[in-house]
Amino acid sequence: MRLEARKYLFDIQEAAGLVAQFTAGKELADYQNDAMLRLAVERAFTIIGEALTQLNRVDAVVAARITDARNIIGFRNILTHAYA
Fold first, then answer.
1. Are 35 and 65 within 8 A, CB to CB?
2. N or C, which end of the chain is more exposed by having fewer CB within 10 Å?
3. How far is CA 28 from CA 2, 64, 80, in A?
4. Cα dihedral 33/36/37/42 (nearest 10)
5. CA–CA gap between residue 77 and residue 50 (Å, rounded)
6. In this structure, how many other beta carbons lie within 10 angstroms of the beta carbon of residue 18?
7. Where do the structural domains in the chain lie, given as residue ranges?
8. What is the tens place of the pLDDT at every residue in 1-58?
């Protein structure tokens, strides 16, 4: 596996860990009422989606092994471009 692909996988793993850390012990109401929590979680999901997009460019075979990669990238696009 190319070094670039490994870097993107590392970024995905780190951002996913942060989502888990930020949301541990939280309820939906906590997320809805805490702007900083929302922004942090959404930023981490954006990083995951962008890293998957780049991974797909450098190693499509590895990216294809990630369950729901297309949906994750789509979610990133919604977070990034759909403010409504």
1. no
2. C
3. 39, 31, 21
4. 110
5. 9
6. 17
7. 3-81
8. 889 999 999 999 999 999 999 999 999 999 999 999 999 999 999 999 999 999 999 9
Q: By the 8 A CB rule, do 44 and 16 touch?
A: yes
**DSSP code of residue 73:** H
Tell me which residue has tokens 């939906």.
28
DSSP state of 27: -
Q: Which of 49, 42, 8, 4 is nearest to 22 (CA)?
A: 42
Question: Residues 6 or more apart from 42 whose CB is under 8 A from it?
Answer: 79
Which residues lie below 8 Å from residue 4, measured CB to CB, with a gap of 6+?
54, 58, 59
Please choose, from the candidates 63, 58, 56, 73, the residue with its C-alpha nearest in 3D space to the C-alpha of residue 3: 58
State pTM to two decimals.
Answer: 0.91
